[in-house]
Amino acid sequence: MIYLQLFWAYLKIGIFGFGGGYAMLSMIQFEIVDHYQWMSLEEFTDMVALSQMTPGPFSINIATFTGYTVGGFWGSLLASFSLVLPALILFMIVLKFLFKNKENYIIKTTLSSMKPVIAGLIFVAALQMMNANNFTDFGLHQNNISVIICIVSFIAVFFAKINPILLILASGLVGYFVY
Amino acid sequence: MKTVFQLFLTFFNIGAFTLGGGYAMLDMVEKAVVDKRHWIGKDEFWDMITIVQMLPGVFAVNTALYTGYKIKGIRGAIAACLGAIIPSIVIILLIAILFVDYQDNPVVERIFRGIRPCVVALILSPAIKMLINAKVNWKTAIFPIATVCLIYFFRVSPVYIIIATIIGSVAFAFYSQNRLNKSKS
User: Residues 53..112 of A with a Cβ closer than 8 Å to B: which?
Assistant: First the structure.
């Protein structure tokens, strides 16, 4: 049963995952954490961090990781296979059409008008991770180090374009010494 | 057969050594496929990327599929795709096995308490970049706001939102094409 659910969850994500890995993240979170409740949000956040630090496509990493915790070795293979399957099928069907019509006005306009929604999807993923379990020391009379880490990391990655892996390592170091 | 194996190896290398996902990988793919192996021309490669970017699913996998297909048909596509994902799956599996064992270790827990707020920032950043890229103005701001509210407050599945968005966007595309044609004639 769990295998069927894993298959279905990642198949949907593979079909409707427009806009890249981060947009897919909100879908994965919705299925794995909210809908099937296979793991807590902190666990999921940890997996996102580890998936960002390992080489290879981010969404394959997170699918394999969550698949493993949910259904062991076969669960991990099934999750990444289901994520890739729609692309394989779609690609055989639409390949010729797409290559012939790459300047197609309808396709271009459709995809560019989806962008604002995709931005919203990525925002939700971040917003849902801003909970009390990920920001343990948030509060008026607390030291709010988690908030400081978040703000500094944001400035570092968005403005200073510092490598995300370095930021994850640095934050881990701060966590080790502070908590 | 030799080319099929080379395709597998090329994407295996890329999958094993690129950090930062899809777009970080593009540079390496171009170097391997265009500069080193001369499988396809530069222009053809970037044309292909424009198409692949539009498709749903994993960008790196789609790139592998299309490059493989262009060079060696279905067999090439599958070889490239497997090459791109196998290193990821192996590495993550090893990490996952360790993670399950050490998750509750107090030192690991402290490290992750520091990492979690950083992850939030790392996702906020592409969200804002996408907002800028989508050229969201006061009128179109309703779309990301509605998306956030529907998922966050009303627990609507993102899949339904994407389906609705596709329908709406296709309708809008046809409408604006009609208007364009009318204004021309």
Answer: 53-61, 64-65, 68-69, 73, 76-77, 80, 83-84, 86-88, 90-92, 95, 98-99, 102, 105-112
